[in-house]
Amino acid sequence: MSVVSEPPLSAGQAAASAVVPNINLQRNPFELRAMQSVLLTGGTWLVAALGAVPLLSVIYMLLVKGGARLSPELFTELPPAGFEIGGGIGNAIQGTLVTVAIASALSIPLALLAAIYLAELRPDSHLANWARFLSKVLTGFPSILAGVFVYAAVVIVMGSYSALAGGIALAVLMLPTVTLTAEGAMRMVPQRMKDAAIGMGCTRAQVVWSVTLPTALPSVVTGIILAVARVAGESAPLLFTALFSNYWLRSVTEPTASLSILIFNFSSMPFDNQIELAWSASLVLVLIVLGFNILSRFIGRPQV
Amino acid sequence: MTVQFVLPDSRSLSRPPSAAAYLVDRVFVVVSTLGAVAIIALVAYILYQIGHQALPAIQRNGAGFLVGTSWDVQTSTFGILPQIWGTLYSSLLALLIGGFVGVTIAIFLTQDFLPPRLAVTFRTLIEMLAAIPSVVFGLWGIFVVIPFVRPGANWLNDHFGFIPFFSTSLSGPGLLPAVIVLSIMILPTVAAISQDAIGLVPYKIKEAAYGMGTTRWEAILKVIVPTASGGISSALVLGFGRALGETMALAMLIGNANQISLSLFSPANTLAALLASNFPEAAQVERQALMYAALMLLAITLIVNVIGTLILLWTQRKMVKA
């Protein structure tokens, strides 16, 4: 082959032809860094599996121990005293539902109004920035402090523990979560829909009422349900606001039982009957909370 | 056929909003502004109420409250150093375990370890963990975790008791079961926020790394995690904040003993657990001291959460710019 007839190679081509044939693009599987990668991948699988163990264990215990006492009496009877046999958690279920209902009635309207202000009316004002920031801080607030606050602000003033005080404590926890999720939902409503309404001569109230709220409704409801689910499982704020009671609730100004406080009280008792009831109450509580969570997933499917 | 928009006597159908509509609008704006004001007022009122109730205790005990080590109702000497220690120690240990597992799970779910459908299922499973109430974890801890870890803990104490961490035996409730349950409880928070942070890393950065011939883990550890480090650290800080304020599971598992010990197996106490176990039966003087303790808990969590939120905002702004 004649060398002379070939055009002279440019510097780059020379380098390429010199290097390319020698490159081995196959990674050696026994190279240190490849083995490191395989090892780490295995470790990750292990850690992830480990992360799933607690949940499975909790669910197993709830079904086995809590399921053992599932019967109509569980829902209709009052908690047993010390050595008594049988009994149920009827008043605790009632108490949990009542306190959560009070909390929802107090916090949802206020949270929606605040969210409308934050998302629609003056989103960039100082007031909005502060309210938003404080809501975020409030969501990270230890829930027991809501109990301490309501004890000082309501229980001392009213002179007694009450279902109302418990509801107010839960409302303090719901307010920031509902506000922030509702604000997020309203911000997702396309601006052109609102602009169109304003262009047709709607007032701000009409825009919010007939355009923003209906469009954002599924996401808003999702946020509300998730907040309800969260506070339904709360116990720390109820400890010294709603206290506990062994009887049915007659008025919201009386102390009331709740599922979470019943679990807490019964878990430290030396009687098997109470421990069994604590497990059944846990099962009922988890079913309520998970039920709300699943409900929120169905409603929250994007529809726009 | 054409649509007639003008009435026969040439009056227009369009009209400005009625006086009533204007009025409703005014009221509406004022009321929703009040809603926003209410949130700020609520936070201020919470601070005022707790501070006001704690005032007598602050005047009586002063700063000595923070370094005192005994909580004795009989002699009215109150100090919360053991509780502050217990709060920080248990939360740090929980952050170590829960943070590691949480970030690992976030990587596991975002870096194509699982087919998408399975990844969604696994994510839902971890989210369900967050839905389980604190008392249920406490109950589970008492009847599952404590019996499970006790033999191992006591073996460690028997053979390695000279190491401070293993210097006592685990007789029932104690720091270790509390930390295990606490780390499970903060895991979903850490995993969720870290997943969002890793999700924000542009795909081309990862592709560039792979294009350079990195292994999967070189790409994850040297490119993706550092890029998402801001979001991951805010996940850790917020998880830490959650651990600090967690109450019921700890009140049930930690043993409520006001002592300072490095041992993982000795009973301890936290600020929140102190409040939960002493508040309902406390008389006036102790109650004021508990309010003081609540104020300290508020201060600690507030600082941690503000730091976490600021890191989150700062990194989100940086990522949006980049």
From TrEMBL, chain A:
GO biological process, one term: phosphate ion transmembrane transport
Entry-linked PROSITE patterns: ABC_TM1
Record InterPro entries: MetI-like, MetI-like_sf, Phosphate_PstA, Phosphate_transprt_permease
Membrane association type: Multi-pass membrane protein
Residues in ABC transmembrane type-1 domain copies: 93-296
Subcellular location(s) per record: Cell inner membrane; Cell membrane
Domain of life: Bacteria
Cited Pfam families: BPD_transp_1
UniProtKB keywords: Cell membrane, Membrane, Phosphate transport, Transmembrane, Transmembrane helix, Transport
Membrane-crossing segments per the record: 37-63, 97-119, 140-161, 167-186, 207-229, 277-295
Entry similarity comment: Belongs to the binding-protein-dependent transport system permease family. CysTW subfamily.
PANTHER family: PHOSPHATE TRANSPORT SYSTEM PERMEASE PROTEIN PSTA
Protein name: Phosphate transport system permease protein PstA
Organism of derivation: Methylocella silvestris
Automatic annotation (TrEMBL), chain B:
Keywords: Cell inner membrane, Cell membrane, Membrane, Phosphate transport, Transmembrane, Transmembrane helix, Transport
PROSITE patterns: ABC_TM1
Record's subcellular location: Cell inner membrane; Cell membrane
Positions of the ABC transmembrane type-1 domain: 84-308
InterPro entries: MetI-like (IPR000515), MetI-like_sf (IPR035906), Phosphate_PstC (IPR011864), Phosphate_Transport_Permease (IPR051124)
GO biological process: phosphate ion transport
Pfam families noted in UniProt: BPD_transp_1
GO annotations of cellular component type: plasma membrane
Membrane-topology annotation of the record: Multi-pass membrane protein
A GO molecular function held by the record: phosphate transmembrane transporter activity
Organism superkingdom: Bacteria
Major subcellular location class: membrane
Transmembrane portions of the chain: 21-48, 88-109, 129-149, 219-240, 260-277, 289-314
NCBIfam families linked to this entry: phosphate_pstC
Homology family: Belongs to the binding-protein-dependent transport system permease family. CysTW subfamily.
Family matches, as PANTHER family: PHOSPHATE TRANSPORT SYSTEM PERMEASE PROTEIN PST (PTHR30425), PHOSPHATE TRANSPORT SYSTEM PERMEASE PROTEIN PSTC (PTHR30425:SF1)
Stated role: Part of the binding-protein-dependent transport system for phosphate; probably responsible for the translocation of the substrate across the membrane.
Protein name: Phosphate transport system permease protein
Organism: Methylocella silvestris
Higher taxonomy: Bacteria, Pseudomonadati, Pseudomonadota, Alphaproteobacteria, Hyphomicrobiales
